[in-house]
Design brief:
Largest sheet: 8 strands, mixed
Strand content: 25-35%
Radius of gyration: 28 Å
Structural class: alpha+beta
Distance between the termini: 53 Å
Number of strands: 43
Shape: globular
């Protein structure tokens, strides 16, 4: 058969032209920098998926912008302008409004917006001071302000040693604050923490670079001591007070001696007559839900008790049913996974509402009309979060989203509507409005791809078996730009690995961090694995690390290494590791326990020895140094300093109140004695994580270390 030579020449020319066009397009793509990808970068705000800021006005949805507020049609997703900042500023007696992002709509039946301490009726064009009953802490003392604006000081002995109205127990057990109003603000419960017996850790404030002292003023750095109860040492004592705005009297719950006890997850009965809290022993293996008379402080009864051979960790206050004030929802992992249970106020368990080998991740709220609960879970996949509705009476459940990705929900006042904001691995952001009455989903917003026009790596996810041979572990892999499977790439494992955190999920790019993209742009392959001990996989998965932090986690991470070594494009001689906090502990552990595997490591804010970590977290997972000396010895990295072979850089914030500088300093001292040579960098004045643009500087430093030593 004869072949037309002109056709061959033409086809060849077409291929050349196509290749030239593709090369030209590739050359037109921009490479991302840390100023684009790091949250402290100057262009970061343009590189994240655009969002819509909204708030509920009863069962109506309002979009907030800097200068305008819009009412969103729940059936069509279309917007109608409500008012502008200029409209409000034209109203008499309104303090100048500069932004509407903080707007709240407190009354479903009134055209009133709250901005700071102002209430403004935009329809009646009327303004007044929002003097609602409020409580706050100032100068260590607890105050309330009544509806007439009168301020009353409730305490006089507040200090660094006696702390009122603040989060206690170092923010563990789900605690986020220290003030708890009852329904209708009839009573105020508050924490009082006596930490006078807790040892001070000597942190130091270094003078600012541009600070010049006045004549005679000291040039010295100033002490900034941090009350820090280390594992096995004396901890603080917490009590719970109740203030009555009508009588102006304070009483304290008669909970007994607070020594070596934790009080958490405070909740009120709907009638404000009873207060509930979970009480936990210092060993954290005996948890009790107890009710108290809010008028006398007397104990009423113990409603629920949960014990465990390892630990119990209450994280959620009880929630009363809006349609039945004698019943409440309690969350527990007692069957191995976090689920919801229905109890009555006598402490009788009426039923288990959800069950299965998956985790209820968030209680969103109630639909009062349907007698149902809206919640999120990972039932569909361990790396997804989806929205469900469950009927409390029948147990019948319904999926409220598309069954993919990672969904976040907020609920309207009655529970009829869900504002569903979600991502998928290839979807930057979608927002829809869901009607819980019929499951109808109304599209509202689709975010454009903010990385259009830039070079982008390849993001993949999969699973491998844990070191136990049976458990699935999920990973994310970020392959370099213009990936060539025939090349061998230097590979960096990014690790956290600790409790109450995960790295891999079904968000955009599998929840990849910007730094991973930056390194992939520079020709590195990134691998991230959620080992056993991380969150959202059930009690057995989490508790396998008990009394031996880092050990099972390292075994799982090395299974990840084993998988990487099976890939022809991974350079086994150029493997690095990086992590922060628990990840810094893991990085240092892997560098010293497997010195022939990892060539380079960067450990940020690393725990070096758990006996120097705080009581609540440390003793939950390790017990005390007195009761678990073998575990503390095995997990300490001080004895591993002699085993360091590769290049390890340790980075800390000098004012870190979480992982104290003592950890890094002691490891450096151990390395000096052993004759090993880590590198060290410190950020003066910074806490556990670098703030602002310093974060970009930090990631430049991390990156450069790999550029220098993992070429």
């Amino acid at each position: 058969m004869r072949i037309n030579r002109l056709w061959i020449l033409g086809y060849g020319l077409l291929i050349v032209l196509l290749g030239m066009t593709m090369n030209a397009n590739a050359q037109n793509l921009k490479e991302m920098t840390l100023e684009d990808l790091n949250f402290g970068g100057v262009n970061y705000h343009n590189m994240v998926a655009k969002n819509r800021w909204t708030t509920w006005w009863g069962d109506q949805l309002v979009r907030l912008d800097a200068e305008e507020c819009y009412l969103i049609n729940l059936k069509t997703g279309k917007e109608t302008k409500l008012f502008t900042a200029d409209d409000l500023n034209k109203i008499k007696d309104v303090n100048k409004v500069t932004s509407l992002f903080s707007a709240k709509f407190p009354y479903a039946d009134q055209t009133v917006v709250r901005l700071g301490d102002q209430l403004i009726d935009w329809k009646k064009k009327k303004a007044e001071t929002d003097l609602k009953l409020s409580a706050y802490v100032s100068g260590f003392q607890l105050y309330v302000r009544d509806e007439k604006g009168k301020e009353r000081q409730l305490t006089t002995d507040g200090s660094r040693n006696i702390v009122y109205g603040q989060s206690v127990h170092r923010d563990e057990f789900g605690i986020e604050g220290g003030l708890f109003w009852s329904p209708g603000k009839k009573l105020l419960a508050f924490y009082r923490m006596d930490q006078s017996m807790v040892t001070d850790y000597p942190l130091v404030n270094v003078p600012e670079v541009d600070w010049t002292p006045d004549v005679g003023e000291s040039r010295m750095a100033t002490p900034a001591p941090e009350k820090y109860p280390m594992a096995g040492e004396t901890s603080h004592k917490v009590t719970v007070g109740i203030y009555n705005p009508q009588t102006h009297k304070i009483l304290y719950l008669k909970a007994g001696d607070p020594t070596n006890r934790y009080f958490t997850n405070i909740a009120w009965s709907p009638d404000s007559k009873v207060i509930y809290m979970f009480e936990l022993n210092r060993d954290q293996n005996d948890c009790r839900l107890v009710s108290y008379n809010a008028e006398t402080g007397a104990k009423i009864k113990e409603l629920y008790r949960e014990t465990d051979a390892k630990y119990v960790e209450p994280l959620h206050p009880i929630k009363f049913l809006p349609w039945d004030s004698n019943k409440f929802i309690l969350q527990s992992q007692k069957d191995g996974f976090n689920h919801m249970y229905l109890f009555d106020t006598n402490g009788k368990e009426l039923k288990q509402i959800t069950s299965g080998k998956w985790v209820v991740m968030d209680f969103v709220g109630f639909n009062t009309k349907r007698h149902s609960i809206i919640y999120t879970s990972n039932e569909l996949s361990p790396i997804q979060q989806n929205i469900w509705l469950v009927d409390v009476e029948t147990g019948k459940r319904a999926l409220m989203d598309n069954g993919k990705g990672w969904h976040n929900a907020t609920l309207s006042e009655s529970g009829q509507y869900i504002y569903n904001n979600w991502q998928e691995p290839d979807v930057p952001r979608e927002i829809e409005i869901v009607n819980t009455e019929n499951g109808k989903r109304t599209p509202y917003y689709t975010a454009p791809n903010p990385w259009e026009g830039y070079t982008v790596p390849t993001y993949e996810s999969g699973s491998i078996k844990a070191a136990d041979g049976t458990t699935d572990l999920y990973y994310r892999m970020v392959k370099p730009v213009n990936f060539d499977p025939n090349k061998k790439y230097p590979t960096i494992i990014y690790v956290y690995g600790g409790p109450h955190a995960h790295n891999v999920d079904a968000r955009w790019h599998y929840c990849s961090r910007g730094w991973e993209t930056y390194m992939a742009e520079k020709g590195y392959l990134l691998f991230i694995l959620d080992n056993r001990g991380s969150e959202n996989r059930g009690k057995e998965f989490e508790q396998v690390t008990f009394r031996q932090l880092g050990q099972e986690e390292m075994k799982d991470q090395m299974k990840g290494v084993e998988y990487l070594k099976s890939l022809p494009y991974v350079d086994q001689d150029r493997m690095g590791v990086h992590g922060w906090s628990f990840g810094g502990f893991m990085t240092t552990s892997l560098m010293t326990n497997y010195p022939d595997v990892f060539k380079v490591g960067v450990a940020g804010g690393p725990v070096i020895d758990w006996k120097w970590y705080e009581v609540m977290y440390g003793e939950r997972y390790m017990d005390t140094p007195q009761t678990n000396p073998e575990g503390y010895k095995k997990t300490s990295l001080l004895s591993k300093a002699k085993d360091l072979k590769g290049k390890l850089q340790i980075i800390i914030g000098l004012n870190d109140p979480v992982v104290l500088p003592q950890h890094a300093f002691s490891f450096l001292k151990a390395c000096i004695e052993a004759g090993t040579q880590p590198d060290f960098f410190v950020y003066p004045g910074e806490p556990h994580n670098m703030r602002g643009h310093q974060s970009t500087h930090l990631h430049e430093r991390i990156s450069q270390y790999f550029f220098d030593y993992l070429k």
